[in-house]
Amino acid sequence: TYDYDLFVIGAGPGGVAAAKQAAQYGVKVAIAEQAQAGGGCVNRGCIPKKLMVYASAFARLQRDAIAYGWSKSEQQFDWQQFVTVRDREIQRLQQVQIHALQAAGVAFINERATFVDAHTLAVGDRKVTAAKILIAVGGKSIKPAIDGIEHALTSNEMFHLKALPKQIAILGGGYIGVEFASILHGFGCEVTLLNHEHCLLSGFDADLAAAVHQSLNDRGIQALCSTTIKMIEPVPEGFRVTLEGETAATLVVETVLCATGRAPQLDGLGLENAGVEAKTAIAVDDYSRTNQPHIFAVGDCTNRLQLTPVAKAEGKAFADTVFGQQPQVVHYDYVPSAVCSDPE
Predict the structure, then answer these.
(1) Per the database record, which ranges form the FAD/NAD(P)-binding domain (predicted)?
(2) Which of 168, 182, 206, 277 would staple 341 via disulfide (CB 3.0–4.6 Å)?
(3) 117 and 11 assigned to the same domain
């Protein structure tokens, strides 16, 4: 016998959805999370980012309001006050996730879980066994091999800034880079957005991407395509950023943000102890099953489609298939997505 019918590693959107759905079928479920409940979306992604989008939009709305009869007033933004309010909301949502799990009968364990063998996990200072195991550990930000790249922040650190930078260089013209460019410009930062490809938002509709690019330029954001960073050097004012490509120039900025994508977070899981196949991502079939018949994986760690609603759908489909005897396959052909730029 095993300690649990299902043990989930990672309490992000996919893991939480799977745990709650599985518990509805009457099985004994536990979920382990080494950081905060809610995963990247609640703590380092969708939620804090969208709150920043809302906050930064008020400056433009106030300027537009003058044309509708509102009197001009002095604009002052208190970053520290915003951070306090934002973090309070994130903490509330963390508790919402935990309470939802507990209400469903799922045991929430705030510890790191790693594989000891195919059915055994080290969870904190103890070991537990499970008949079936779901891996839902999400992804991590990645950086390219550039001289001085260790000085660049990733999107994770952007949510922990002590103060807003006066000037920032953002490397990466995907949705993360474009969103932060819009947000920080709204806060009054001088933004230079760099992308090694010939256009922004590669993979999105070309006409919409071109419209966003034009809008960024019109608003005063310097968006440079076919241009990347050659070197980052510390200087008294912040960092000297040497560019190469179509625009070969040098910038001096307070902060550099690297927004060049994300990859599965597989470090230290001990997948080799369980015999789970994974190179750059965990390999799964249409039913999220790994090469081990009782071990499954959903969400960003499988690198299928890195979106919160997709991870949730994969988690629910897994539970329905394995515990509800209702085989479900997630289809990825028509999945809507949004970019929180200005315009969106």
Answers:
(1) 4-315
(2) 182
(3) yes
